[in-house]
Amino acid sequence: MLVTSALLAAAISVIAALLILWSNPARNVNRAIFSCTLHLAAWLFCLHLAFVLVPGLPWVRLASAVGTWLPMHFWIVKQTIVIPPGEYGRGWLRRHWAWIALCSLLAGVCFTTWFVPAHSTGTNRIYGWGYYGYIAVNLGLYAFLLRDAWVGTRKLSGVRRLELQVWLLGGCSTAAGILALMSLSALTHDRSYVRLQPLVVLLFYGATAYAITTHRILNARQLLMVAGSRLMLVMVASAVAFLLDRALSAVFSDVVALLITTGAVLLLAAELNTWLQQTLRLYPQAGAARLAAFEIARREMEIARLLPAFSRLIKGWGQTERTLLAFGEKDLLSGDGEAIADGAAVRALRALRWATPERLARERNSPDRAELARLLEERRLGVAVIAEGPTLTAIVGAGVPVSRRPFTYPQVSHLVELAAIMQAAIERAHFSVKAQRAEQLATVGLMGAGLAHEIRNPLVTIKTFVQLLPKHYDDRAFREKFTGLIGDEVTRIDHLTEQLLDLASPRAYSPQNIELHAVLQSGLELVSGKARDRRVELRRELDAAPDRVLSDAAAVKQVLLNLCLNAIQAIPSDAAERWVRVATRRVERGIELVVEDSGPGIPAEIRARLFQPFQSTKSSGFGLGLAVCSDIVARLDATIVADPAQPGRGATFRVVLPCPAS
Predict the structure, then answer these.
(1) What tens digit of pLDDT does each residue of 382-432 get?
(2) For residue 391, how far is the Cα from the chain centroid?
(3) How far apart are CA 502 and CA 505, in angstroms?
(4) CB 3.0–4.6 Å: which of 305, 375, 391, 422 could bond 300 by disulfide?
């Protein structure tokens, strides 16, 4: 059997129709488009038979009669899109009787001599007035459909507006093009115009079927610009490759010329592609938003600051007033202090990777997707994407834009990139919080023995006086001394436990004006017990005056304890000198806190990655202490550095804390 373009177009139309029905068989619009596509395939098959069979005139009449009913079918598709599902079936004949009568009349004309006279032959085709009347009436019908669809698109939004644009505006324009080819064939007596009709159908319907079955929402202007830029890129690269290969072949061997040409063309294509994107502004907001996301991820370290910054970025990128940033583990995510998506919505989004109301309306429904659609509707979101990491899942959504236009697929792709950046930043912030918490608890554990000793001493004193109280109760001086001592020792115990609880409690750091030396003295009091147990002398040289800094007291204390405990543990048990020096002094940028020890110093192999997690020379611990210190001082606009290694000297760390503005 001879395969013609009409037969190929008919087969592709049938496949497209099945895919459209399969995507959501319960939806009336999909059913209407499915039947319309089969109708188009039937017309193409009749056209194929007219091309290959002799005589072909009966099949020309049949193809024309079948095509007569296509405007009515387009009208049915339009009504299905515009009218709500529950109301479409009512009064069907009343709405379509005029179409049925007119299409029946035109179909009948196709089988009369008014359409094609009896003396017309395949080599000398003659058309009657009915043929031209057929074309004129059909053009009028499609013009009416175009106008009606254009008015309808201005009243609709979302998926219904898109479908009306694709199927009515695009489909009717394609049909008008086919009728124009029929007119040219009749006027020029050139049958090659008729053979172009299936190609017009393929051009339109192939792109439309691809868009529907792969769930892409395409912006026509952007699609044309992207296609034009790709065509220009291919043409320029091909021309340069041809000319360069011809020129180099005269000087070098064919292999060398090919290698040089390939490298030069690849370099040219990369540069030209970048230039075209910037010149045509194919993705005007994507690059700026991506850079802004990276900058936010680099600058902000706390989740409480990351989320508002990312929310503002999404609002600007999507030109919307609503955003969704939900994150968590497994299927339960939360944001804004409440549960955002349950397991069903997360599972649906994980399977789809991204969702828009338009995509969910077109596709096959399921309980999970219905839950996701409900989430989008409740939050008034125009798009939602999911990004998953090793331990954290994030959902990023943007509200319906102020223009009310659906998000295009390139925009969805950009949001997927932004979501990946945001997910990584939020996951890093989570790890940072967990690391700080672990280091806090590790510090409390390390100081436990020393603090137990500090608390035991006043308890022993209290116990001794309690034992002596019965014998010396009548001694007024003893009672007064006992009363004062008990109060002092209880106050001391209370102070120690309060500091320990304050150190162990999680907190968000916020800079404020504090007296640095008071904070340092409080921290050194906590670590003094550990120093005594290890027979290490604590040297204090707090010389900075004035000592007010813009920082967080708990954060400074945590940094001091980490550095001091590291220094105490670094000193070998058989070292001749056993001391840790804590000093302050005024510098140009603020007040410098110095923690120096008499240990062996920092090994050269870990100095380059000293402030990275899991770097330690000790047999115990996770190596998070210095990484946590670096993270804390970065949040407080402070700096921490380690002095270069010097023979015979231990490690020296310098923390510069900013002073309040005068």
Answers:
(1) 899 998 887 788 889 998 887 677 887 778 888 888 888 888 888 877 776
(2) 17
(3) 5
(4) 305
Report the C-alpha gap between 121 and 189 in whole angstroms.
12
Write out pLDDT tens, residues 194-203.
Answer: 888 888 887 7
Q: Measuring CA to CA, how many Å separate 392 from each of 230, 308, 326, 435, 620?
A: 38, 19, 10, 16, 28
ω into 55 cis (within 30 of 0): yes
Tokens of 184: 């040219």
Is the whole model's pTM more than 0.85, yes or no? Answer: no
Strands (E) located in 506-559: 512-515, 537-542, 548-551
CB 585 within 8 A of CB 592: yes
Angle at 434 between CA 432 and CA 440, to 5 degrees: 100
pLDDT band at 286 (very low <50, low <70, confident <90, very high): low
What's the chain's Rg over C-alpha atoms?
Answer: 40
- pLDDT higher at 131 or 430: 131
Among residues 395, 396, 392, which one has the least CA distance to residue 431? 392
Which whole-number Å values give the CA distances from 456 to 464, 523, 538, in the listed order? 12, 19, 21
Cβ partners under 8 Å of residue 641, min gap 6: 653, 654
The H or E element spanning position 77 is helix 70-82
DSSP 8-state assignment for residue 219: -
Cβ burial 337-365 (10 Å sphere, 16+ → b, else e)? eeebbeebbbbbbeebebbbbbbbbbbee
What whole-number distance in Å separates Cα of residue 57 and Cα of residue 105? 20
Contact of 427 with 379, CB cutoff 8 Å: no
Beta strand 579-587 pairing with 537-542: parallel
CA distance 183 to 51: 18
Instruction: Report yes or no: 504 and 629 within 8 Å, Cβ to Cβ.
Output: no
For the cut 90, the answer to whether the pLDDT of residue 279 exceeds it is no
Nearest one of 182, 66, 196, 175 to 125, comparing CA atoms:
182
Centre a 10 Å sphere on the Cβ of residue 368 and count the other Cβ atoms it contains. 19
Residue 430: how many CA atoms within 13 Å on its side-chain side? 16
- What are the CA-CA distances from residue 280 to residues 198, 228, 317, 569 (Å)? 33, 10, 19, 62
> Which amino acid type is present at position 150?
W
